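It is worth pausing here to work through a concrete case rather than discussing structure prediction in the abstract. The textbook approach is simple: state the sequence, then state the predicted structure, then interpret. We follow exactly that order.
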Amino acid sequence: MASEESGGVVRPWWANALLVFCAFMAFVYTPWDIFLKPVARDQEVWFGVVLEGWAAKATAPLHWLIYLAFTYGLWKMKPWMRFWGTAYVAQVAIAMVVWNLLDDRGSLVMAILSGALFGWLTVAYWRAGEVFESKA
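Step two, the predicted structure:
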């Protein structure tokens, strides 16, 4: 089932779910994280490596730009979202494996399970991503 926005843009349910998530991250969570969260509590994860404090504060605007771009790309169903959305989900798969192997809270079992889950989601996104290439 797909929804149609003004301008004839058809967005499937999963793209709507991602749009809501990206919009929340772009307009609620990340601004709060950058401007209101104390530096001492700040954390950002890049490719599974946890940055804390000022390193996290310094890299948070990059996450903000990513979420803003993805919100726009999903809202307009831009063709570049097929590649970049897939790349981001693949990065999450890698990050889940790396984080579970490096962090004391992780484990080898969770690295395998989360890597497999997000690896599957990467393939699923790419396959379903043909919707970004079609124009309604």
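Step three, interpretation. Residues 10-78 form one domain. The chain has a mean pLDDT of 92.
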